[in-house]
């Protein structure tokens, strides 16, 4: 946040510290899906910067209240606009193994496995860097 020799105002930030062994992706799901989602559900993450890799994760958080909620929700079509914030956490062991390649803030797509009886499609089979 600050460069050597820079004068900071009171309360100014000197640096940011990140724990690269605790990385999550935040995404939003409609209430019809979020309502059936359980903590620990399987997730696959594909980052825009590295589309050749498919990263395994699991649902670690489901918001208790909807985002983007209309002021008055009276009809079924209005309720479909409710979106819930979900966080998927990448396993700590996997992050430790690939620590040199971990970046924060990268955009991507999260795929959630809502039916455990169905296998992941081949395109979402886990693929990681060597």
TrEMBL record:
Source organism, top-level taxon: Bacteria
Protein name (record): HlyD family efflux transporter periplasmic adaptor subunit
Organism of origin: Castellaniella daejeonensis
